[in-house]
Design goal:
Length: 163
Amino acid sequence: MARQFSLVAQAKPVSALAPATDAAGRTGGYISLKNAHKAYVVLHITQGNAATIALSLSQAKTVAGGSAKSVTATFPIWSALDVATDDTLVARTAAASYTTDAGVKNKIVIFEILPEAVLDIANGFDCIAVTTGASNAANITSAQVFIVPGRYQQATPPSAIVD
């Protein structure tokens, strides 16, 4: 029998930003990409107010956030700006961040991260965190990171929240 795709073994999901309001903006926990060939940051937005939301990434040398700095390299971005009526992901201009429109809709935004192209790997930066800008208390954001494929595919992949 052919081996079937396993989300857990081949695209490890890691919680990056728990669902919460974004009145003041916030930064999620850092996730190590040292075992990742690629990572997808999937942001879910319940936009209850017509205030835009700035979405970006921070990079660090450790999962504790050591030497944190903004990601400045560009990466592919997709979004679906009204998932209640259309699940089509639209490719956006590659950038180092993305700001939602002001539409009061439920949205998905996806960042595609190739660690060696996006992070300052040469200087030891291999961890990322999702950052949201100040918005409105009625706007709720959350995010997951999918590490695909893991460098070491196994039933229990290595942790991405420890160094």
